[in-house]
From TrEMBL:
Keywords assigned by UniProt, alphabetized: Membrane, Transmembrane, Transmembrane helix
Coiled-coil blocks: none
Name of protein: PepSY-associated TM helix domain-containing protein
InterPro entries: PepSY-ass_TM
TM region positions: 27-48, 146-171, 197-218, 337-357, 403-420
Organism of origin: Luteimonas salinilitoris
Length: 424
């Protein structure tokens, strides 16, 4: 076989890059409305608890010198709402957050009761459907039934992988672009440089979102590891009455004595079979609180066993670490802010990519019109900055084709389902 000449090799490289560019542009343009919406809601969901803190005065507390015990906080919630069923109490998100008690009213409505973790008194209660739940349910499954919504959203991990891989082929020597200064001599070059700059800085984040999103897709299709093994203090026929405040405090003290590294984050006073369950953080990192747990009998606080996140299988470990990595909720507010910034960059990539397509299409249209190769309405031919921007967005909108109506219809379904979710 004859060896290719340097000239033929040089011709194939641009052609290959053009194929990757066309694939990158097609995926980004056709899916931009759906992908951008999911990225935007996911970005806000990173700070959903903080948004609720701003919206609801019941969640805001002033730090104090000491913390109230878990038992005292549960007792306060029970005293304020004696006829409500209290299923769990969760540690505050930060030093100025109230502890959250999950409750259900006699009518079956879900509520959150908020307890000052320093003074041990109830600050109020709010509806279950808050900003956090709105953003998480929107981002996770668009308010659709979980069976259909989760795989639909998680399938976006596939175009994320395509755009990531194709960008590495399109942007030659991309590793040199971390500190490249955008050139402002013309709009297309300026926004192209901004798009590449944002893309280079968010490469690792895009890869992380694609991997975790891909795992959610695997889970939704039946490949999940399932929850960790259940800890139970007795049989299902045992008394399932909630543990008293005194029993909870004794159990927390014994948990610390038996497992010094264990930090309680969630208390479930009435689990299956009359089990008091403590969940929290220990030596295993990047896992949800349920991965580490201590079980006690709810009746008298007798120790029943523990679950150590370090002893999970690889399959379970991947399942438990997906959420902390996807939302950045594993090391407090500083990490959340980093995830938020990268989420903004990812959302901006959707917008700037579509705008670049519109700029290229508008320039091609104006060039062809000037040369007399086609007739075009005067409104499509930009003559100044404002008209150029308008023409670019119009070209991008048309370039989406029928896909735009599919995503608009899907978002309309989301809007229609929103009131039904809020009424739970």
């Amino acid at each position: 076989m004859a060896q290719p000449t340097p000239a033929s090799t040089d011709q194939r490289k641009p052609r290959g890059r053009r194929l990757w560019f066309d694939l990158h542009s097609w995926v980004g343009l056709k899916l931009c409305l759906f992908l951008g919406f999911v990225c935007f809601t996911g970005t806000l969901a990173v700070l959903a608890h903080e948004i609720d803190w701003l919206l609801h005065p019941e969640i805001r507390v002033a730090p104090g010198p000491e913390r109230a015990s878990w038992g005292a906080m549960l007792a306060a919630a029970h005293s304020a709402h004696p006829d409500w069923e209290l299923s769990a109490i969760e540690a505050p998100e930060g030093s100025r957050f109230a502890a959250r008690v999950r409750a259900r009213t006699p009518e079956g409505r879900l509520r959150f009761v908020w307890v000052d973790p320093y003074r041990g008194h109830v600050t109020g209660d709010t509806h279950w459907f808050n900003a956090h739940r709105f953003l998480r349910n929107t981002h996770r499954h668009l308010m659709l039934p979980v069976l259909y919504g989760v795989p639909l959203v998680a399938a976006l991990s596939i175009p994320l992988v395509i755009t990531l891989v194709s960008s590495l082929y399109i942007y030659r020597h991309w590793w040199r672009g971390f500190f490249a200064r955008p050139r402002g001599d013309r709009p297309r070059r300026l926004w192209g440089d901004i798009h590449r700059l944002a893309g280079v800085w968010s490469l690792g984040f895009v890869a992380l979102m694609a991997l975790t999103g891909g795992w959610y897709l695997v889970e939704s299709l039946g490949g999940g590891a399932g929850p960790p093994a259940r800890l139970q203090a007795g049989s299902a026929q045992d008394d399932a009455s909630p543990a008293s405040a005194a029993v909870v405090d004794r159990a927390v003290a014994e948990a610390h004595a038996r497992w010094p590294a264990f930090v309680v984050r969630v208390v479930r006073p009435a689990g299956a079979g009359g089990t008091l369950l403590l969940e929290g953080e220990a030596e295993a990192v990047l896992v949800r609180p349920r991965a580490n747990a201590m079980a006690f009998a709810a009746a008298d606080g007798t120790w029943a066993g523990r679950r150590d996140g370090r002893h999970m299988s690889l399959h379970q470990r991947i399942s438990e670490m997906a959420d902390p990595l996807h939302f950045g909720n594993f090391a407090g507010l500083p990490v959340k802010l980093v995830w938020f910034v990268f989420g903004v960059l990812l959302t901006a990539l959707c917008v700037t990519g579509v705008y670049l397509y519109g700029l290229r299409a508008a320039e091609a249209l104006r060039s062809a019109t000037r040369r007399g190769r086609m007739a075009a309405p005067a409104s499509d031919v930009a003559t100044d900055g404002a008209t150029a921007t308008e023409g670019s967005w119009r070209c991008a909108w048309r370039g989406m084709g029928r896909w735009r109506w599919l995503w608009i219809a899907l978002l309309l379904v989301w809007l229609a389902l929103l009131p039904l979710e809020a009424l739970k």
